Amino acid sequence: MKKLIIAAFALAAIAIAPNTYAQTKMVGGAAMYPTKNIVENAVNSKDHTILVEAVKAAGLVETLQSAGPFTVFAPTNEAFNKLPKGTVETLVKPENKATLTKILTYHVVAGKVSAADLMAKIKAGKGTAELTTVSGGVLKAMAKGGKIYLVDEKGGKSWVTIADVNQSNGVIHVVNTVLMPN
């Protein structure tokens, strides 16, 4: 009887807040809840430990916990590991905070831009869309084979591997390469 009551409460919770459960995605082995902010979700992803460390080192935690909204192209640990050996360790040093901040804010666009919004912009731009980042740089978004990819100012490409991870203060799109500004 006790299990039946618990199951009934669980079903009632889903019925009351269906959008919360329908929009929850798994990233790095953890549920990403649309009721939590970007930082609250990111700290639970085992695939984003380097990004979280970098955000802390750059002093961007408070910003990414604010109301936003923000669109974050979140590189995975694997993406950071593609950088030349020692790059991450050098960037998180206090004397490199300005450079780290520029790189991280190059992954952020003001406003909430869904994958559907990106595809519409790409279509309207006849194959490409330019996104101005919080750092003032430009990312080019394109579509190929049904996937969205981004081209940074140095010509590097990154694929969106998980799109539309909704947050209370924006959206995260997981990317497989760190994007680099000029």
Into which percentage range does the β-strand content fall? 25-35%
Classify the fold: give the CATH topology: FAS1 domain
The general outline is: globular
Q: Which CATH class applies here? A: Mainly Beta
Question: What is the assigned CATH homologous superfamily?
Answer: FAS1 domain
State the separation between the terminal residues, measured CA to CA: 63 Å
Helix coverage percent: 25-40%
Radius of gyration: 18 Å
Q: What is the count of structural domains? A: 1
Task: Give a short overview.
Residues 1-22 form the signal peptide. The chain is α+β, with helices and mostly antiparallel strands and 182 residues long. The protein has nine helices and nine strands.
How is the secondary structure organized here?
Layout: H1 2-16, H2 18-23, E1 25-27, E2 30-32, H3 38-42, H4 49-58, H5 61-65, E3 70-75, H6 77-81, H7 87-91, H8 97-105, E4 108-110, H9 115-124, E5 128-132, E6 138-144, E7 147-151, E8 157-167, E9 170-175
Parallel strand pairs: 3-9
Antiparallel strand pairs: 1-2, 3-4, 5-6, 6-7, 7-8, 8-9
What does this structure look like?
The protein is an alpha+beta fold and 182 residues long. It has one domain: FAS1 domain (Roll). Helix content is 38%, strand content 27%. It contains 9 helices and 9 strands. The strands form 2 sheets. It has a 7-stranded mixed sheet with strand order 4-3-9-8-7-6-5. Helix 4 crosses helix 8. It is globular. The N and C termini lie far apart (63 Å). InterPro entries: Adhesion/Biosynth-related, FAS1_dom_sf, FAS1_domain. One of its GO terms (cellular component) is extracellular space.
